[in-house]
Amino acid sequence: MVLFLEMGAAAQSVPTKLSLAAATDLLMKRNLAVLAARYNVDAVRAQRIAAGLRPNPTLSVSATQLTIPRLFANPSLALRTGDNVAANSTYTVEVDQLIERGNKRGLRVAQAELNVRVAEAQLRDALRQQLFQLRQAFFSAVLARENLRVARENLAHFERTEQILQAQYREGYTAGVDLRRIEIQKFELEHEAATAEQGYQQAVRDVLNLIGVGDAPSNASVQLTGGQSANDADLQIIDGDLDVIPVLLWIDDLRQMALANRPDVQAARLAVDAAKIGVQLAAAQRVRDVTIGGQYARNGSDNTVGIVLSVPLKVGPRAQAAIEQATALELQAEAQLRQAETQALTDVEKAFIAYRTSRDRLRAFSSDVLRAAEDVRRTEEIAYREGAKGLLDFLDAQRAYNQVRLDYNQARYDFLMSLYQLEYATGTSIVK
């Protein structure tokens, strides 16, 4: 199996031997979900800048009382007083500035700053979710690789046994039915090996997708060279194992960690704070803004200046609708916070149950159990070859040995993933 990871001259290179740390670095740089969340932070920061801007002044220029026939007949009358003052043209230049009252700008800025923090927490949450998916895919590939090796070792062992039985069959020492049973068992092992290999390739493909190269199947894919099975070197593309250092965890500590550190809970909590400021901002609409301005006017040859003060008239409770909407959004944010906290605690409970179950199951395995299964298989094989036992006894011992190894791999995988599930549930680092 060959791993093609060339993405073009401008693309970053991906290691052909991919460790979890390297895959994590690539995910943080190139994962599309993380990039989308990062762009959302940039967009919300731009909104923060807009929220702090003051209203621009308004420039107005006007010309009124233009008597067209008279001006065409004598253009010099445009800028001087004529005999008929009422017929003189008036030119006005006015600059107005809206003055916001009620701390509206300060509230907008405070709400925008909280929205930035919400977006940053959502970015961390997107990273939390994508990292968990990466670890699932990565260690699913490791599990499939270990199971593939078990299947291949058993297959090689059966092929040697088959060769011996074929020789014995030709010499008349073995019944043909035993040879057919071996062939059937060999077929089952070949199927198990093919299934494990398929699982490995699919898991590697998931890893590539999460690190940002999954959209280029022609030049960033895992393929079997010449239609052959992957060799041992190919199986090292995913550089990792299922071993982990056991840790001692307490459910109460995990609950507190989840409520304090989970980014989705943090985002929901910040959203409540932003909604509270939204209510204050809506209430601030009751305070009327004023507009002040300066005016210069020329009527004929006369120049005048003036000051303009504009105050909107309060007709009806126009801010009430905005206040009710903001209040509803605050209640919605509080409900979403309670839901996020409940979900976090539920995730912790489920992850801790998986942790205890997988921990106890892994403890049941030891080197003695694996060695005992191998010894039983070897004993049954020798007894069969010497005629002391039947083929079915040997096949049962072989299946038991194979199942013990597969169960051991699964137990290690389940325990490791239970720790990562606890990391996902609490938003903190647990696996060492």
From TrEMBL:
Any one of the GO CC terms: efflux pump complex
Compartments, as annotated in UniProt: Cell outer membrane
Location (main, coarse): membrane
Coiled coil: 109-168
Domain of life: Bacteria
SUPFAM superfamilies the UniProt entry points to: Outer membrane efflux proteins (OEP) (SSF56954)
One matching Pfam family: OEP
UniProt KW Mitochondrion keyword: no
MF terms (GO), sorted A to Z: efflux transmembrane transporter activity; porin activity
Keyword annotations of the record: Cell outer membrane, Coiled coil, Membrane, Transmembrane, Transmembrane beta strand, Transport
Family according to the record: Belongs to the outer membrane factor (OMF) (TC 1.B.17) family.
Name recorded for this polypeptide: Outer membrane protein
Species annotation: Pyrinomonas methylaliphatogenes
